[in-house]
Specification:
- The structure is a single chain.
- A 5-stranded mixed beta sheet has the order 3-4-2-5-7. Strands 1-6 form a two-stranded antiparallel sheet.
- It starts with a strand and ends with a strand.
- It is an alpha+beta fold.
- Helices cover about 30% and strands about 30% of the residues.
């Protein structure tokens, strides 16, 4: 993380998310042998985008675990790498698997992925979604 001034910071949350219209969170938990940090059953979501009805199963790593973005990403990538075969099977069954990076930042912040991190993400073969919230805190 490259922060230009001390008062400009990025608060990140990195997740491995599995989505699907017929996703049953307990089945994903059983299949992967990992407890999620969050789940949502299929159906309309008052917190999601309009029309969002997919169920979700996810593991996230945020400032409660570490404030270091690279450590957060490393934890999520290690989990995904250890379950690569199972995650690929879920994709074959029609589920969407995503590496998700969310950042809440102040002005003039940058968040750089290191070449090795990009390589690890590419080797997994799952989409990377990056979302930024630029509201001032």
């Amino acid at each position: 993380m490259d922060v230009k001034e001390k008062r400009h910071w990025v608060l990140t949350d990195v997740s491995l998310v599995i989505k699907g219209r017929d996703l049953q969170p307990e089945e994903i938990t059983s299949f992967l042998g990992i407890e999620p940090t969050g789940v949502r059953n299929p159906g309309p979501s008052k917190w999601g985008r309009p029309g969002e009805v997919d169920g979700e199963w996810g593991i996230n790593c945020n400032s409660n675990v570490s404030r270091d973005f690279h450590e957060q990403l490393g934890n999520i990538l290690s989990t995904a790498e250890s379950k690569r075969t199972e995650l690929a099977q879920l994709v074959e069954q029609g589920y969407e698997v995503i590496v998700d990076i969310y950042g809440f930042s102040g002005n003039d912040c940058t968040l750089a992925l290191q070449p090795e991190e990009l390589k690890r993400i590419a080797l997994l073969g799952f989409p990377l979604r990056v979302a930024a919230n630029m509201n001032e805190r």
